Amino acid sequence: MWKHRLHHSSYPWMNTWLSHQTRDDYWKHASICEDFSQIKCPVLLIGGWADLYTNPVFRMAESLTCPLKAIVGPWSHCWPGHGVTPGPAIDHLEVFRQWFDCHLKGKTNGAMQQPNLRIYMKQGVKMPQNLSDVKDWPGEWICEEQWPSTNNVCHLYSLCQKSEKLVQTTSTQESRDPSQRTRSIQSDPACGINGGYNM
C-alpha cells in the first residue's frame, strides 16, 4: 500500500527527495544554513506549529544577524489568513504590505517596531481524530525579542511505571524503589505531528 502510494504520487519532487535522504550536495546548494552571514536583507519569517517544518523559523531567528521579524502560529503549511485551520488566523496580507512598504518603499509604518518574535502558545487540548476538526486552537500570542528566549524554562517529566502517568521530576537519578522507577524519553514536542501526511 505504501509503495503504491509512493509510485502513484502526484508530487513530482517526492522521488527526488527520497533519493536524497541525507544532507548531501542536493540539499546544501540552496540551503541558507550553510552560511547565514550571507543574508543581509531584512527577513520576515512565518511558520506554523502544524507545519511539517516546525523548526526553521526558530533556527533562522537564532542564526541570522540581519533585521528580522518572525511569526509562528497554530496553522499548517499554508497561508495563515482567513479560513486557515487550525486558527486563529492573522491578516497576513496586511503584515506583508507593512513589511514591503517599510523595506521596499522606505515608509516608516511601525513594521520594525513590532516584537521580533510573535509566537502562538497553544493550550493543551485533547487531540481530535482529525486535525481539520480544530477551527481555532485555544491559546495566546506571546512576544519575544530574541531567540532562544530568556523566558524558556525546561521541565523534566518522567513516566512512572507504577501509575503509568507523567510526573514532574527534579532529578534524572533513578529511584531505588522499583514502584517509583521512571522511564525518560526526550523528544521534540512537534515530532510526528504530521505522521507522513505530506507524502
Automatic annotation (TrEMBL):
Residues 169-199 are annotated as: Disordered. It comes from the Eukaryota. Residues 10-78 form the Xaa-Pro dipeptidyl-peptidase-like domain. GO terms for molecular function: hydrolase activity. Transmembrane segments: none annotated. InterPro entries: AB_hydrolase_fold (IPR029058), Xaa-Pro-like_dom (IPR000383). Signal peptide: none annotated. This is Xaa-Pro dipeptidyl-peptidase-like domain-containing protein. It comes from Nematostella vectensis (Starlet sea anemone).
